[in-house]
Amino acid sequence: MAKKKQVKRGKARGPYIPPVITRVKWPNTRIGEMFARVVDIYGSERMGVFCQDGNHRIGRIRGKIKKRVWIRKGDLVVISPWDWETKVEGKLGKCEITWRYTNAEISWLDRNRRIPEILDINNIPF
User: Fold this and answer.
1) Cα-based distances in Å from 116 to 16, 27, 62, 120
2) Is 95 helix (H, G, I), strand (E, B) or coil?
3) Nearest 5°: phi and psi at 84?
4) How is residue 22 annotated by DSSP?
5) 8-58 confidence digits (pLDDT tens)
6) Quick one: CA dihedral 15, 74, 118, 105, positive or negative?
7) CATH architecture for the domain at 29-117
8) For residues 34 and 51, what is the distance between their CA atoms, to the nearest angstrom?
9) Cβ distance 101 to 37 under 8 Å?
């Protein structure tokens, strides 16, 4: 009888090794970037975000990260507001979501007190 070949399926799992944070992206305030939290998901690459300056805006996911990164409700992101947009009373401003932080990056930012107090996930006004 022929001996059956044993097939190894999947990756061999070892102990979990947390990622090492070497560099964390920082919002470039000279060009208007700031921290924000995702509070609503509207679909069609649009999300409601609460920004560091205290305003609610509609965020659009940048094309470069659209297929690579999944953004969920409560995530910490970097946005750049649309400065060419005309302000209309009663309508939300718009912005572009340019970066999403991972859990390891958020914990590093939190340990080093870099996240503004206004963006605490439990204290966001609606």
Assistant:
1) 30, 12, 23, 8
2) strand
3) -85, -5
4) -
5) 666 667 787 877 777 888 999 999 999 999 999 998 899 999 999 999 999
6) positive
7) Beta Barrel (2.40)
8) 7
9) no
